[in-house]
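User: Here's a structure from my thesis project, written as structure tokens. My advisor, Dr. K., wants to see whether a designed sequence matches the one we expressed. Can you design one independently, without my sequence as a hint?
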């Protein structure tokens, strides 16, 4: 987003508008945090702002201020559609294509509001009047901070906004350990602490949320883990039956794939989770070094994301999805063995 676009957007937002903010489906810490932070900024200028999530998000993110104000599109579709149709501006946060908003894709493609995209994923669609897209950024929450810098409005960051942004940066960087964490990322995080984000409390609320059922489910996942040394790969499967038997709650499998990636010698890890209600296998992919799981997900799993973290899905059964995963690995054997870790 260049200077002229920033000034134009700032001028348009200088008078109260009807605004809707939308994260991607199955919103994570970065999606929820970026939406809440932007909400906190916009309401200070008298805008009428609604946050609409394509579906629910995990309980461990619902402690953030204003999280209770989200409309769940799956539960309040008619009300949400009306708000979207009446909106002057729609901010798409942490996603760069309408289909990433699940069933909201239809209504988002129909209306003629002014779209603003703030996102750090690869290959954005060309739908927004104002696009702030940067794949080098650690998180969309870091981008929100820089967006406010561009608007010369970082002085408007409240403790609640700082907390939301810090949460998104923390979760999308894997507690600042992923390669996307730069010195600028750390400076932004430090500035957010200065503005009221309590790093210790945020870490505790995000990561100290284990329940007996989640721990038992993790045990099942680790027991199901398969290691393919030939391909420097490990994968985990979880069936619907296994989820149900362990009282699965949304967000319970967050981070499970990292246990596979953390194995010595493993470059590529994938988790396959059955979602019977959607007749799909949901999958998350993680990698080390230069192995590009974004491309792998786009080419094989109808998904995408970042170079070292991506997601996708399979319409096959669990058995056939595992067979597919094993069948494609020989095509990446050379790349996997070239990675230096």
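Assistant: Designed independently from the structure alone:
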């Amino acid at each position: 987003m260049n200077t002229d676009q920033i000034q134009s957007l700032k001028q348009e937002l200088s008078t109260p508008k009807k605004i809707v903010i939308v994260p991607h489906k199955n919103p994570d810490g970065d999606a929820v945090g970026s939406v809440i932070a932007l909400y906190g900024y916009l309401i200070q200028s008298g805008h009428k702002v609604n946050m609409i999530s394509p579906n629910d998000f995990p309980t461990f993110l619902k402690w953030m201020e204003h999280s209770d104000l989200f409309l769940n599109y799956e539960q309040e579709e008619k009300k949400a559609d009306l708000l979207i149709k009446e909106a002057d501006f729609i901010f798409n946060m942490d996603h760069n294509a309408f289909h990433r908003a699940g069933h909201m894709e239809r209504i988002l493609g129909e209306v003629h509001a002014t779209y603003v995209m703030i996102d750090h994923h690869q290959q954005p669609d060309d739908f927004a009047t104002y696009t702030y897209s940067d794949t080098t950024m650690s998180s969309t929450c870091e981008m929100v901070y820089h967006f406010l810098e561009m608007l010369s409005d970082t002085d408007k960051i409240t403790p609640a906004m700082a907390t939301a942004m810090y949460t998104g940066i923390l979760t999308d960087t894997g507690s600042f350990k992923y390669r996307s964490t730069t010195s600028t990322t750390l400076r932004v995080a430090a500035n957010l602490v200065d503005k009221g984000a309590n790093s210790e409390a945020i870490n505790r609320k995000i990561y100290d949320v284990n329940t007996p059922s989640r721990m038992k489910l993790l045990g099942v996942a680790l027991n199901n883990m398969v290691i393919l040394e030939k391909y420097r790969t490990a994968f985990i499967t979880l069936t619907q039956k296994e989820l149900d038997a362990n009282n699965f709650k949304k967000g319970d499998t967050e981070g499970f794939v990292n246990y596979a990636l953390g194995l010595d010698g493993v470059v590529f890890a994938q988790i396959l989770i059955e979602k019977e209600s959607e007749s799909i296998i949901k999958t998350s992919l993680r990698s080390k070094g230069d192995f590009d799981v974004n491309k792998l997900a786009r080419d094989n799993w109808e998904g995408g994301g970042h170079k070292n973290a991506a997601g996708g899905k399979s319409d096959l059964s669990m058995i056939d999805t595992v067979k597919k995963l094993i069948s494609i690995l020989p095509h990446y054997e050379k790349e996997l063995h070239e990675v230096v870790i």
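When you compare it with your expressed construct, this may help: The mean pLDDT is 96.
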